[in-house]
Amino acid sequence: MIRSCLLALSVAMSLSLAASASQIGDLRARYLETVSGIVSLDLQFTLQSNSYTEQGRWARDGERQLLVVRESDFGPGWAAFDGVKGHQVTFDPERPERIREIIASPAVPLRLREAYCIDTWLGTRLKDSRTDLAGLLASASARVVSEDGDNGHKTWVIDLGEHRTPGGRLNHWSVTLAERYGCLPVEMAATPAGEESGAAHATLRDVGTFRYRLSDWIAIPDPLTGGDKWLPQKMESTYKDGGWKLILKSIRLNSSVLDADFRPPAPTVGTQLITETVAGQRTIKVHQQDELLEEYVQQHAARAAEETRRLETEGAAIAVRGDGFPWYALRWGAMGSLIVAAVAYAVRRTRLQANSRE
């Protein structure tokens, strides 16, 4: 009798696990369908934490990424990855118009891997994880804990199990997916787990659970499909003694980002140009005055030409939440000024060269 009960219980558990695995497989497929349809994002944001605030721009177009911090308690910042090479720019904190150093590297810059970059919130790249959300959903430890809501508005709480970080620590992950938003996450959590010893692990246990919450969702027009996609306008991260809040001020979805945006700003006199290799070697060159004007003009003339081509093929950008200001006029005026400056500089340079030969 006992043996028959145990056998029945084992069969029931096996069927339950199989059903849960099938359900998670379906949710994972729907999540991947949504994130694969987000080809590019271009966002203006405000970041608020307990100790500092920032305003800037974050963009992703395929493998290319960009972060521009315009206003910050720590000064401006700039980092980009063009799909092949990464650049990170450091400004002089006392004279922000001067660039202290530009680091070129084959790796993605560290600033683009910060927890507040939206890829972290969407799960396409997770901080302190060896994989992304799709990888965690595919793990054998993933199981549906609860399901709530009616058709079209269901949410699923999923226990993703314990997973090692790149540094070897153990985190216990969970996620809540929302049907209305294409099975994108509305909440994720990572809790330090295990009994690892050492000061670093003890500190992390003291910090407690890192929790990410996404809210204030808005339907954004998708120019690729003609429909809408839901995206959050507010993202909050909390842990034991602090956290931060990211508020999106504008969103551009699936509109091409200019190639020139992923190129670093022109160096100023005295800027250290640092080139790093995969092997960890680096070379340093100090930028000189006679290189400055020519590089500046070339960079901005190329950007003006690229912007002209993009507007001719795509038309003017549609602001999600515009303020009525005729930005297109400002853009065309700036482009015209850059072209005039480039031509004037070229004429002046030609005359100087002619005079020097005389």
Explained architecture:
The chain has 358 residues and is an alpha+beta fold. The protein is globular. The longest helix is centred in the N-terminal third of the chain and has 35 residues. Strands 7-8-9-10-11-12-13-1-2-3-4-5-6-14-15 form a 15-stranded mixed sheet.
Secondary structure layout plus pairing:
Layout: H1 2-36, E1 40-49, E2 53-61, E3 64-72, E4 77-81, E5 86-91, E6 99-105, H2 118-122, H3 133-137, E7 143-148, E8 155-164, E9 170-178, E10 184-192, H4 199-207, E11 210-221, E12 228-239, E13 242-253, E14 272-276, E15 282-286, H5 289-314, H6 327-357
Parallel strand pairs: 6-14
Antiparallel strand pairs: 1-2, 1-13, 2-3, 3-4, 4-5, 5-6, 7-8, 8-9, 9-10, 10-11, 11-12, 12-13, 14-15
Helix pairs in contact: 5-6
Short descriptors:
358 residues; alpha+beta; 15 strands
